[in-house]
Specification:
The chain contains eleven helices and eleven strands. With about 300 residues, it is of the alpha/beta class. It has three domains: about 90 residues, Winged helix-like DNA-binding domain superfamily/Winged helix DNA-binding domain (Arc Repressor Mutant, subunit A), CATH 1.10.10.10; about 100 residues, D-Maltodextrin-Binding Protein, domain 2, CATH 3.40.190; about 100 residues, D-Maltodextrin-Binding Protein, domain 2 (3-Layer(aba) Sandwich). Strands 3, 4, 5, 6, 7, 8, 9, 10 and 11 form a nine-stranded mixed sheet that branches. Strands 1-2 form a two-stranded antiparallel ribbon. α2 packs across α3 and α6 packs across α11.
Amino acid sequence: MSAHNVNLKLLQTFLLAAEHGSFRRAAEESNRSPSAISMQIRDLEEQVGVSLFRRTPQSANLTPIGSMLFEQVSNAMADVQDALDRLSEAAAHRRSHVSIGCAPTLSATRLGNILATFKLRYPRSVVDVKETPPTGALAMLQEQTVELYIGPEVPNMSEFHFEPILQDRFAVCMPAEYDDGATTLALADIAQFPLILLDTQTAARGLIDRIVAESDIALNVQYEVQYAYTAVALAAAGLGVAVVPYIAIPMLPKADFRVIPLEDTDAERAVGIITARGYVQHNYSEQLIELIRTELRQSL
């Protein structure tokens, strides 16, 4: 048998015998017979092709080759133990921590209540939150920066699992100066108004752009912003008509404008939880995911 295929148990027996300088004491330490220890050492010597011990009736002392092997195996075992200790620490940290990513609109409107409720239920838990647009979600999950992401469905998720929780439609924030009293609106109805839209890096804007392309209309886009609450604030200041996901509505300031449903076909998106395929939940993450499901379903 090749020395490259040495059984780890033989090396552990070798270390034990070398540390005690006696097969008998190694046997006592490991609750085995001296003959079993001697047999394993002999197997190891046959595999490596050299004698590792000078045997006497009272002791077993390392040969020069045995001493060299002892030093190298001891260092290797110490490295393995160190790695296992660090793995154990990481596992303990993971059991008490949950790292999540969240879309800005959701973090501004829903996440606070979710985390407050979770902290009341599990005071020893720690939730690390990273707010990021959906376009950055998959990279964070792939790099294991976060365990799960709360936000809208995004393209190219073949390596990820998406659990839809709610369908989020879009709404128009209509300042009084542009308001003609309509109860529903399509993008074509507001195309000529100065519009405030989320920028082209957002999933919401991608959906709006697809509708526009299919409808063959041109929008008068005056402002492009990254966050829904910025769009709402600009509309509140009378700078234009904002189109935002309905889930952003709780951010509405006190202002003289109405919220009107956008009636275009497909003007909605699925919102839920994204995880890497094969993600294994632990106790706290499992409980947090269940709470997210409950809170989001009740939010619209």
